[in-house]
Amino acid sequence: MQLGRRLRQLREERGLTLAEVADAAGISISHLSAIENGTRPNPSFLVVAKLARTYGVPIDSFLDSDALPNAQATADADVSLDMSASYAEMAKRLAEADALDNPAVLLEVLAAYLREREQQYQSDPDTDADGAESDRNAQRPDR
């Protein structure tokens, strides 16, 4: 399901108006309307996170599972899924820290996440941050 349709569904299920949701999320009514109608299909991460918080749903509930590639379809599918998992993890951390309205907290959460990723990489450079074996060895002629 597309993001706009999902947002409209959530709003209608809750019996809310565009104005109520826009006000609660801190965005304009016209912006929300454009997202719901599909004329603005790729809103910023910040807007999506605010809407997820407004509706009380996890941000990854907006990921379109039908649009994700089949893991067996291509070698790139694993990369896409890993990126989605990383995106969802970052969104979860930002929401838990209520970092979206506080730039200092936002930067702290991002810095902590990047430090963790760097430490994971340094501890085993042939494994990505999610623990999956990378194919860097296959790309290196010396191995």
Summarize the model shown:
InterPro entries: Cro/C1-type_HTH, Lambda_DNA-bd_dom_sf, TransReg_Diox_bact_type. This protein is mainly α and 143 residues long. The chain has 7 helices and no strands.
How would you portray this structure in words?
The structure is a single chain. With 143 residues, this protein is mainly alpha-helical. The chain folds into two domains: 3-62, 434 Repressor (Amino-terminal Domain) (Orthogonal Bundle), CATH 1.10.260.40; 76-139, no CATH class. The chain has helices at residues 3-13, 18-25, 29-37, 45-55, 76-96, 103-123, 136-139. The chain starts with a helix and ends with a helix. Mean pLDDT is 75; it is low at 67-81 and 132-143.
- How many strand elements? 0
Main sheet overview: none
Low-confidence stretches: 67-81, 132-143
Helix/strand structural class: mainly alpha
The shape, in one word, is elongated
The domain count comes to 2
> Could you tell me how far the N terminus lies from the C terminus, measured between alpha carbons in angstroms?
44 Å
Mean pLDDT level: 75
State the helical fraction. 55-70%
Order of helices and strands: HHHHHHH
Q: How large, in whole angstroms, is the Cα Rg? A: 18 Å
Helix count, DSSP H or I runs of 4 or more residues: 7
What percentage of the residues does DSSP assign to strands (E)? Answer: under 5%
GO molecular function: DNA binding; DNA-binding transcription factor activity
Protein name: Helix-turn-helix protein
Biased composition (Basic and acidic residues): 133-143
Keywords: DNA-binding
